[in-house]
């Protein structure tokens, strides 16, 4: 098993009722599968609506999660 800390930003933090949460997941679980199983319902947006980083590096949804990873979930942003 792998312990992954997930950081939520902007409205994702509101929808997840906090800025961070720790999950126990299978080692090498693809980020997309983790999203579907643990986040999609509460976030209410498709995977493609978010950007992700693991340990401060941008990653794609196929990225495997490992023990000790810090995953950031970043909703779309806009500004002027």
What would you say this structure looks like, in words?
The chain is α+β, with helices and mostly antiparallel strands. The strands form two sheets. A five-stranded mixed beta sheet has the order 2-1-7-4-5. The chain starts with a strand and ends in a 6-residue tail after the last strand. The protein is built from two helices and seven strands. The chain is 22% helix and 36% strand. The mean pLDDT is 95.
Question: What topology does this entry show?
Answer:
Layout: E1 2-8, H1 11-15, E2 20-25, E3 29-30, H2 31-43, E4 51-54, E5 57-59, E6 64-65, E7 70-74
Parallel strand pairs: 1-7
Antiparallel strand pairs: 1-2, 3-6, 4-5, 4-7
State the total count of DSSP E strands.
7
Q: At the fourth CATH level, what is the homologous superfamily?
A: Beta-grasp domain
Q: What proportion of the residues is helical, as a percent range?
A: 10-25%
For the biggest sheet, the summary is:
5 strands, mixed
SSE order, one letter for each helix or strand: EHEEHEEEE
Question: Nearest-angstrom radius of gyration?
Answer: 12 Å
Number of helices: 2
Strand order of the largest sheet: 2-1-7-4-5
Would you give the CATH topology?
Ubiquitin-like (UB roll)
What proportion of the residues form beta strands (DSSP E)?
Answer: 35-45%
CATH class: Alpha Beta
The residue-averaged pLDDT reads 95
Low-confidence stretches: none
Overall tally of structural domains: 1
**CATH architecture assignment name:** Roll
Coarse shape: globular
> Gap between N and C termini, in Å?
43 Å
**Structural classification:** alpha+beta
């Amino acid at each position: 098993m792998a312990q992954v800390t997930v950081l939520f930003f902007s409205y994702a933090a509101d929808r997840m009722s906090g800025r961070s949460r720790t999950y126990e997941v299978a080692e090498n679980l693809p980020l997309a599968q983790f999203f579907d199983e643990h986040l999609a319902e509460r976030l209410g947006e498709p995977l493609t609506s978010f950007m992700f980083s693991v340990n401060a590096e941008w990653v794609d949804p196929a990225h495997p999660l490992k023990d000790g990873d810090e995953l950031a979930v970043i909703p779309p942003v806009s500004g002027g």
